[in-house]
Amino acid sequence: MTRIIAGEFGGRKLAVPKVGTRPTTDRVREAIFSRLDHADALRGSHVLDLYAGSGALGLESLSRGAAEATFVESATPAVRIVEGNIKELGLGTRAAVVREHVLPFLERTTKTFTLAFLDPPYDIADGDLVAALAALAPRLDPGVPVVLEVSTRKRLPEWPRGLQLMQSKAYGETTVHFAERVR
């Protein structure tokens, strides 16, 4: 079961796709959001949730005070799940779902964001991940946090110009990398 941990929707259950995604565990989400809360990165933020899956990261952000969230997911079943979770929580115009692959979305959007999550499939090719990170950097202002979840077995990705790794922390099979947009 996946649920929202804290905030306006704390305790509410979220639907998750039956196959094709790996929901972030409560323990990992709590660690991520503890750090983001401490940095005051959530209140009023414009969140980008890439490889959204169930939308748990963006929805947790909205529950904790984010102004809006954009969810990018290419798998139709997952898109339907995110849309259903948004409707169930009554988020209306605060949340938008884009059914598209991450790289083309980042290359075409002109919108900027103040918090970004990437939770790609564990088997994503290194080159695809680096390309997504490079395309993400121009969509962020300096100082904006970027949270990347990958398999602990995956080697540290190359961080493109414009993004600087700040810290990495392993939680069992998941490693969370915290980065920041730099000039």
TrEMBL record:
* Top EC group: transferase
Task: Tell whether Transferase is among the UniProt keywords.
Answer: yes
| Keyword Methyltransferase attached | yes
What keywords are assigned to this protein? Methyltransferase, Transferase
CDD domains registered for this protein in UniProt: AdoMet_MTases
- EC number of the protein: 2.1.1.171
Membrane-traversing stretches? none
Give the molecular function GO annotations.
16S rRNA (guanine(966)-N(2))-methyltransferase activity
What is this protein identified as?
Answer: 16S rRNA (Guanine966-N2)-methyltransferase
Q: Which organism is it from?
A: Demequina lutea
